[in-house]
Specification:
With 236 residues, the chain is of the alpha/beta class. The chain is built from nine helices and seven strands; from the N terminus they run H-H-H-E-H-E-H-E-H-E-H-E-H-E-H-E. The chain has a seven-stranded mixed beta sheet, sandwiched between helices. The chain binds S-adenosylmethionine (SAM).
């Protein structure tokens, strides 16, 4: 079975939550979604995309440029700063929770960031479906849901299969940056990525804190609870 087929799985890395937006999110959505959100034909779940979905990224951005992808962009802090500090890059963020995407829209509009596009979809499935192999220059997965109960760990985004998929989609030399505040997930990321034949660690162990990553409530919550923040950086 191909990686793309295997990643189209029943066990997903997120829970379905109410998509109700607060008034400011609703306003941001109504005003801005047509400018930043890319609609894709959906598959058998609300957040899955059709197996034959395609996106012409050059057309979606109106230019050809290196592609940076974030999966699980939350309220959009990192992708907004990423867009501002990398004007020469096309950035795509995948997030399954619509109210968070609406908050991201407000943030992008306030800062007038035009080199970002948002997709409401399972980013793992989308990575397999709507990107050519060797087409992504950088991938970010910051504070993926930790799923720390042992019986839930199969839901973790970062797995050996996912690492294989990422390695296929990264361009040679392309980078994958990760962060988590859960020590056992960090350790398992290290094991999985160190074992991935096409990836190598850019540092002897943990990476220094990535300066392009603003502190979000997830990082702050980990720090407040006394947890260590682990950064990882690998390259194809
Ligand atoms: C713990 S939050 C972290 C958000 C953000 N990266 C940050 O650091 O603030 C994880 C986010 O990933 C999203 N998510 C989980 N699995 C996803 C998937 N397969 N595709 C897209 N988004 C996903 C969740 O909805 C949630 O917003």
């Amino acid at each position: 079975m191909s990686t793309a087929a295997r990643i189209h799985r029943d066990v997903v890395s997120y829970v379905r939550r109410s998509a109700r937006m607060n008034p400011s999110q609703q306003r941001a959505w109504d005003t801005h979604h047509s400018a930043w959100v890319i609609d894709l034909p959906s598959g058998d779940r609300a957040t899955s995309i059709a197996a034959d979905a395609e996106i012409n990224w050059t057309a979606a951005f109106g230019r050809q440029a290196p592609l940076l992808v974030e999966i699980g962009s939350g309220m959009g802090h990192a992708i907004t700063v990423g867009g501002q500090t990398n004007p020469e890059v096309n950035l795509v963020a995948f997030e399954v929770f619509t109210p968070a995407v609406a908050s991201t829209l407000g943030r992008l509009a306030r800062h007038q960031v035009n080199n970002v596009r948002l997709v409401i979809a399972d980013g793992a499935q989308a990575l397999a479906t709507v990107f050519d192999d060797a087409s992504i220059t950088e991938l970010w997965t910051f504070f993926p849901d930790p799923w720390h109960k042992v019986r839930h760990q199969k839901r973790r985004l970062v797995s050996a299969e996912f690492a294989e998929l990422v390695a296929a989609k990264l361009a040679p030399g392309g980078r994958w940056r990760l962060a988590t505040d859960w020590a056992d997930y960090a350790q398992s990321m290290r094991e999985v990525l160190d074992a991935a034949p096409r990836l190598h660690n850019l540092h002897p162990g943990w990476a220094p804190r990535f300066a392009g990553r603003p502190v979000t409530k997830y990082e702050q919550r980990g720090l407040d609870a006394g947890r260590t923040i682990y950064d990882l950086a690998y390259a194809r």
